[in-house]
Amino acid sequence: MFSKILVPVDLEDSSRAGVETAVALARESSGTLLAVHVMTSGAIDVTDVPHEAKPLRAQAEQKAKTRITDLLDEVAEGVNSEMHLFFGDPSEEIVRAASALGADLIVVTVKNRSRLGKLLMGSQSQEIILTSGIPVLCVPKA
To answer: 126 with 89: CB under 8 angstroms?
Structure first.
């Protein structure tokens, strides 16, 4: 049914429900799981800023790759999967990645937030739903 399933992955456990659902769908359809992590400027530790930021970004990328690889090793055994890292606004980059990678489904984990939190911070999931040109499956955080 779905040949390429994109799932955004954060470095915490908050995206795990979406990842597990995407893995199950990829397994059922013999599809490919596209694990996407979007790094923001907040992902780079600037407490000990050297003269150049490249080592900090490389360090953050390696941390993300290690975390995502560990998660995929744990939950995606036997599923064809790819890992992709992007840098920028998460919702924009996820929609852009879906198009660039030829995804035919996006699986997002939705987090229950207060009305005030939604008003002040917006919702990445909502932005993805509204701007995606392909179906988006929303999975509640476990």
So the answer is: no
Would you say 21 and 105 are in contact if contact means Cβ atoms under 8 Å apart? no
**Which CATH number among 3.40.50.2300, 3.40.50.1100, 3.40.640.10, 3.40.50.620 corresponds to the domain 4-140?**
3.40.50.620
CB-based contact 37:69 (threshold 8 Å) = no
- pTM score of the predicted model: 0.86
pLDDT at 137 over 80: yes
Contact 81, 33 (CB under 8 A): yes
| Residue 114 predicted with pLDDT over 70 | no
CB 79, CB 3: distance < 8 Å:
no
On the question of pLDDT at 90 being above 80, the answer is yes
